[in-house]
Amino acid sequence: MLHIDAAVWEACQAGDKGAYAQIYRLYYPRLYNYGCKLTDNVVLIEDSIQEIFVRFWINREQLSAIREFRSYLFVSFRNYLFRLLSQSRELHADLPDEERYVFALELSAEQQQMAKEEEYQQHHMLRSALESLTPRQKEAIFFRFYENMEYDEIAAILQISVKATYKLMARAIEVLRNAYHTMPLVTAMMTFATLVAALGSVQLSAAITGTTLFPLPENFL
């Protein structure tokens, strides 16, 4: 389940703690997963999640829509986690900065183990392409293709304009497409199904192969 039921949302806003618990259980693993891509400090990740959910409960009546809540949650979590990381001297005090933090968007160990031996080179090239993206590009890819967010939501979380978000996404996809199309024997060995298995996202795989389910406006490319 990736979305909050409207009835649950309304009940939570009205003060129903059971509904609040449902929302917490839905978003806790998603925030935790996102936090693990920014740091391996589990304590700070968990502290940040707890803090922003306390704030959400206090401010729940001020949020007018479920979609607004999702952006609010990720923005609050990101900012609070960066603050804790800065205080713990894991990051510079003036973060967030595109070149001064790490975002670990990579193929999972399980996904890599699923690959056949003859596909090793293709997976290695794809992984290298992912690692070459800037932290902000990785975050944009994560939110768009793994969290299915719209560009305005991503822009709010990354605190940049929607136009800048389009450009960020276009450049990231271009890097991944170039890596994919230069792979040797790619049509024979790296099939679409294999690419999906490697990336864990049908939408991102489609974008890389040029059959994107999330088309980018031409004027932003």
TrEMBL record:
The segment(s) forming the RNA polymerase sigma factor 70 region 4 type domain are 125-173
Chain segments annotated as coiled-coil in the UniProt record: none
Superkingdom of this protein's organism: Bacteria
Annotated ranges, domain RNA polymerase sigma-70 region: 23-87
Query: Does the record carry Oxidoreductase as a key word?
Result: no
What name appears for this protein in its UniProt entry? RNA polymerase sigma factor
State the organism's lineage.
Answer: Bacteria, Pseudomonadati, Bacteroidota, Chitinophagia, Chitinophagales
Task: Name the family the entry cites.
Answer: Belongs to the sigma-70 factor family. ECF subfamily.
Question: What keywords does the record list, in alphabetical order?
Answer: Sigma factor, Transcription, Transcription regulation
Q: Which species is this record about?
A: Chitinophaga rhizophila
